[in-house]
Hints:
The complex is a heterotrimer.
Chain A: H1 2-11, H2 14-41, H3 50-71, H4 77-83, H5 86-90, H6 96-102, H7 110-126, H8 133-163, H9 169-182, H10 191-200, H11 208-215, H12 231-256
Chain B: E1 7-23, E2 29-45, E3 49-53, H1 60-68, E4 75-80, H2 89-93, E5 96-100, H3 112-122, H4 127-140, H5 156-168, E6 174-178, H6 186-203, E7 206-210, H7 214-220, E8 223-228, E9 231-236, H8 238-245, E10 248-255, E11 269-274, E12 277-283, H9 289-298, E13 301-307, H10 311-324
Parallel strand pairs in B: 3-7, 3-8, 5-6, 6-7
Antiparallel strand pairs in B: 1-2, 1-4, 8-9, 10-12, 10-13, 11-12
Helix pairs in contact in B: 8-10
Chain C: H1 2-19, H2 22-49, H3 58-74, H4 83-92, H5 95-99, H6 105-135, H7 144-170, H8 172-175, H9 179-192, H10 204-212, H11 220-226, H12 232-264
Helix pairs in contact in C: 1-6, 2-3, 2-6, 3-6, 4-7, 6-7, 7-11, 7-12
Amino acid sequence: MVAAMWIRSTMAYRASFVLTTFGNFAATGLDFVAIMLMFSRVDALGGYALPEVAFLYGLSSVSFGLADLAIGSMDRLGHRVRDGTLDTLLVRPAPVLAQVAADRFGLRRLGRVTQGVLVLGYALVTVDIDWTAARLLLMPVMLLSGAVIFCAVFVAGAAFQFVAQDAAEVSNAFTYGGTTLLQYPPTLFARELVRGVTFVLPLAFVNWLPAAYVLGRPYPLRLPAWMAFTPPLVAVVCAAAAGTAWRAGLRSYRSTGS
Amino acid sequence: MTGVDTAFIEVDRVEKVFEVRRKTGLLKRERRQVRAVDALSFTVARGEMVGYIGPNGAGKSTTIKMLTGILTPSGGRLRVAGIDPSRERTRLAHRIGVVFGQRTTLWWDLPLIDSYRLMHRMYRIPDARYRENLDRCVELLELDGLLDVPVRQLSLGQRMRGDIAAALLHDPEVLYLDEPTIGLDVVSKARVRGFLRELNAERGTTVLLTTHDLQDIEQLCSRVMVIDHGRLMYDGPLAGLHEAGESERTLVVDLERELPPIEVPAPARVVRVQGPRQWVAFPASQSAAPLVARIAAVCPLVDLSVREPDIEAVIAKMYAEKATA
Amino acid sequence: MGSGRLYAAVTAGGFRRYATYRAATAAGVFTNTVFGLILVYVYLALWDERPHLGGYDQAQAVTYVWLGQAFLSTLALGGGGVEGELMERIRSGDIAVDLYRPADLQAWWLAADMGRALFQLLGRGVVPFAFGALVFPVALPGDVLTWVAFLVAVVLAMVVSFGIRFLVALSAFWLMDGTGAAQAAWFLGYFCSGMLLPLNAFPGALGEVVRALPWSSMLQAPADVLLGEAGALPTYAFQAGWAVVLLAAGRLVQTAATRRVVVQGG
């Protein structure tokens, strides 16, 4: 309901809406162009060919795009805390998290999802996958779990803004930085970094691990194959952790004011 | 002053302590505790209309935020309609209405009616009741013809009325108003006050309002509470406040020509002379009529007006009194 | 020189304004470092696969990554320069006040932006760059002269960057809502300045084109001076050429815009 209102809100400035949606599409598209440029000079990156990288890229972008579409406006929480307008949300009977998520809900963010879907489509056409029922089933599971994991990162970032209102940019390192990282094959990165995003901040479950299974490639950390099917579990744990962080943040706001 | 069963809002030795970090050097930070509300106690009965006043930073907003559940008190006991606001914030939200004078809760780019539709859904107001309340608000707050206007195009007064309506669609039992007439013109102020009086009389809605405008209190509230430095300084009728603060009104007199200060009977006295204009201070508890008659009898009058005392001045006087007592 | 002192004061003001946001600066440093880290591994793999891509060796490519992170906010490649504020003033009509100030509009905002850029270079640029230089193998020159030459190229890059953003901001005089234009300029700048891939490594005709565009004076030009891939003087000539063209264009547009404001009465 609130989200629908924001859509109508942005439609009030139609020309700007068209431009920003297109801008979103093009801006995210250009970093895939950069990858294509790299592949015009090399045949493989970390042992992955262009269609395989496109597969990773598409999965990461769609998951992230869905999360961004749903609750990408979390970074506005810092503003709301600073200018005091968060109070107007707190006196209403709806959950604050839902209200903040719907804040400035923008269909223009569809640009990012669309671009991701296109790249994923290209990958599915060109990449050589030995499709089995398990692999086919894993596709939607992976996209949805990935979206939930990114949502959890967004919420945790928002919770952090209760403590440090000016430091909203830190969460960009994990959200935008996270999706950028996942666009490339895990074989590119240092082992410690891969361990970090597998066991500490489990971004690897968005696409690296399940995609390695779908593509029939070994995961750099030699994890057992069944781990490829754990993203829903990881997503639930992440969502629970983010929820706890959010409640702690809100509690600290309500006991300190601003 | 009110019995247990009539107490609708109960505030019992409530306090709120903030920790403020301040930079004292390049890297050093000093932690300091600020007591925004200090052992505050009062009760408000159902259907009362109470003015809550005090200088900026006195603790008014903090109190309202605790009563609405936005802030959790550091100590003491607090109940609104039997509910602990900070523990059951969303349950309480259905029973209270809040208007923040300087921050609109309305949807900036969309027509007013869209914000009301959102309230309809968010508060799960039954359709019939929503229609009835909306019609009533539209009529009494004169929102006719404004419902389809985007909020950003409304004047300040129109927006305030729109905000008040938005806070009342779900029939709250208590309404908190934070500076509801700030920045409004005379006509808008009168409309808002008239509406609040009627709301209180007809529906028995409990109203707690903070304001800087003494006229709001005079025309609306039978009771006034003054807070400063987080403590309750005064709780009682407005007339008593004037006595307690020995507040004064000012008669501004424009004469035909420059004259020496007019001789007026004490305790009234001329406080300022500038050309043909003179300022006469007199106790707020007295009527201005005899004074005006007296001046008109001895001086050639062109024009005159009465200035109400402002709350800051009243409270400042209360302090001066305490210091000398 | 009275006006010189005025603009120096404006620059100092711009510097101090951004210096007050400590938490935001720290957050930015962290984010730049993370992005640099991701990109470094990609480049290492890329140069592993194809050594001497674009004439760089691996160490030079790594250095390039961290230069890019250091310049991201300095040159406002991802937005965040004075253009946002300038556009807001145009939209709200406050710009009329600026036009009647005894100082020149373009010079005023250039000075303010230089102050901002200097702060971002020191506050947000140095730490990620130092981190990169300590953790990864980099190619840094040993002689002071190259560093000085590099810094001159950085200042010229700041001017070019402002020249582009000033033009974008002035578009708000005609578009009213400049968000779309600003966003378009942002992603174009991000791509064409070589933030995603060094312009040297762009293939064929596309490479020829992007290397001739003004954006190549922003990251690529100073980087090549530091990495010893380009002579200082020809680089300066290229940068200064674009700076003059862009500032002159900005001045022309400003004159047209001023006329518009005067005609409309604000």
